[in-house]
Amino acid sequence: MNKFIVEKGVVLPLDRANVDTDFIIPKQFLKSIKRTGFGVNLFDEHRYLDKGLPDTDNSLRPINPDFVLNQSRYRDAKVLLAKDNFGCGSSREHAPWALDDYGFRAILAPSYADIFFNNCFKNGLLPIVLDKATISALFTEVEANEGYQLEVDLEQQTIIKPDGSTIEFSVDAFRKNCLLNGLDDIGLTLEGSETIRNFEKSWRSTAPWYFMTPNATTT
Amino acid sequence: MKTVKSVLVNKMSSKTLYDKIWDTHLVSEREDGTALIYIDRHLIHEVTSPQAFEGLRLAGRLPWRADANFATPDHNIPTTTEERKQGLEGIKDPVSKIQVRTLDDNCAEFGIFELKMADARQGIVHVVGPEQGATLPGMTIVCGDSHTSTHGALGALAHGIGTSEVEHVLATQCLMQKKARNMLVRIDGQLKAGCTAKDIVLAIIGKIGTAGGTGFTIEFGGEAIQALSVEGRMTVCNMAIEAGARAGLIAVDEKTLDYIKGRPFAPSGELWEQAAQSWRSLVSDTDATFDEVVVLQAEDIEPQVTWGTSPEMVAPITGNVPDPAQEADETKRGNIQQALAYMGLQGGTAIKEIKLDCIFIGSCTNSRIEDLRAAANVVKGKKVANSVEVAMVVPGSGLVKKQAEAEGLDRIFIEAGLEWREPGCSMCLAMNADQLGEGKHCASTSNRNFEGRQGFGGRTHLVSPAMAAAAAIAGHFVDIRELG
Q1: What are the backbone angles phi and psi of residue B353, rounded to the nearest 5°?
Q2: Exposed end of chain A (fewer CB within 10 Å): N or C?
């Protein structure tokens, strides 16, 4: 997993509540068996004017000039500023993959859907929760100042604004450590293999009905 | 890390159903509350698993316990009988074909049980799991699919996960997470005739909103929930995620046990007796405390229809599409305007005046035998309105299809002018060829009315199977209670 230590970049404001994962990456792109290449189809239904299909040359498609992602002032954005309940809907990890592949490194929103929030951390993408007033003020500042950038410092848990002022944020200590060090969750869990094995043995004797194999039953 | 035993001793006081299942599956817990939870059942489909299997291969890992896994393809397989007869070759989209073949290959390589596309028992994973008895009370169940909450109807702790977690479960049989909070949604009283499990859950979402359950596990209880069949309970738990909760739960009762007994993966004989005895304790203690309690009166619930682009944008059939001008809150007004623009609806329009171009009866929410019976009952001896361009019934599994055909439901649908399809997710998310046309209105028994969900530019209205069937005949929404 990619490490996240300090990231600085242009902020892109997505002024819409309840952005669902179909909005982030439409279903037709979920047919890929790879983890990469989703960035060109991020926000596909709003970014382009036509219907997107996998394996097409997106550079030939008509773009929607009104959509924020297509505005030159937000080119190469790294920080996504969003509204309530961002990432609701399906569990597709293709949503954080698409955001990451496009180049986003951090998201700032008042709230997120649980599964999406969790999926972000698995991909080196940092979803930060800030109160509504702070988010609202950031929307105003970003829209008023072309080239507005924020620096996100995970170690210090601060967001540094262009004028040098800072916003503190909280993050789960365990997840912070994983992101700072780019740790592999599976490797960490497997360090406790013996504990899992002991648990499993005891659970198997308590509740053997959960350990029946399909072959042991008739269909 | 402390061990599970000490936790059990410390928590002998009253517990919710969620607390009980959590505690029995707690492998270890860090100081900060990050826990390792043992997973009994891992359900797998073709869309969210290929990258996880690839991850295992790259790391040189094997599944921790292959027999805990259960796979079936469902999301992007074709649903016409003609295509299905041809097996994998019948999948016209080459990308979809690769994905389905990759699932077959991965299951073969890692020794994972799979009901393949051609198997008579194949179907939507959330229909097939309970049907096969692969879902049992008190289990922890995960799947790379948000509608895994469905399985909570049988008293299992079940929720969706992302692909990284699919890989984590494959490799370790565990999941790393923090415990959610407890919410009770209680439905008191009795549902009125014509109102169903779908109407209950849409009414709940209308009340608490799509983020109302975020951070919670919701237990659904109360007289109206107890009165539901197990299939109806699955419809309710299925949409817990639409209320923001990863998992929904319903207490085990004799209906639950009757449903499970005799299913292929369920224990039998002496083991059944032991298991059933243990499962009877899977209810929240009477003095258990919930962090939040929401109460609805069943008598107040009318047949529900969504009018917007989020499941919380819902109204009773007797109601109207909201008028943005009447909304004082600026954000809400903006949301309504955005939704109405997409849906092509005027504020104030009566729900009954909304005309339909398409009818979809299917999905993990409403594609079980009782759903099909309810829909068939409405269309029997009638004809789909001429203005309806597409009307299809997609059973949730091969076994549901077989049962429906044994009861003659297929004939009823076909004679009424509905298409009778092969099992799969179909137009719920339109990853296969079953796609809603741009600008078309669809009465759908599925779970999401997001923009583009059922097809680019498509306009979805979520309803119960009986309401979808009635709309098919009338060509617009009608109050199912007014039909003779």
Answers
A1: -90, -5
A2: C
B292-302 pLDDT, tens digit per residue, is: 999 999 999 99
Give me the domain span that covers residue A135. 6-211
d(CA B75, CA B424): 6
What one-letter code names the amino acid at B483? L
Query: Phi then psi for B16, rounded to 5 degrees?
Result: -80, 165
Residue A22 is assigned to a structural domain of this protein: yes
Task: Tell if the CB–CB gap between B275 and A209 is shorter than 8 Å.
Answer: yes
Indicate the SS3 state at residue A167.
strand
The mean per-residue pLDDT over the stretch B54-82 comes to 97
Tell me the CA distances in angstroms from B337 to A190, B259, B320, B324, B451, one per residue in order: 50, 45, 15, 6, 14
CATH code, A42: 3.20.19.10
Mutate to test the interface with A, among B61, B112, B136, B164 (most CBs of A within 10 A): B164
A70 in helix, strand or coil? helix
Contact A38, A25 (CB under 8 A): yes
In a domain, A51, yes or no: yes
Decide if A218 is inside a domain. Answer: no
Q: Return mean pLDDT, chain B.
A: 96
For residue B36, the chain A residues in CB contact (below 8 A) are 189, 192, 195-196
In one letter, which amino acid is B350? A
Are B24 and A203 a contacting pair at CB < 8 A? Answer: yes
Tell me how many domains chain A contains.
1
ipTM of predicted assembly, 2 dp: 0.95
Phi, psi of B440 (to 5 degrees): -85, 145
Residues constituting chain B: 484
- The answer to whether residue A65 sits within a structural domain is yes
The pLDDT of residue B243 is above 60: yes
Residue B175 near residue B169, CB atoms below 8 Å: yes
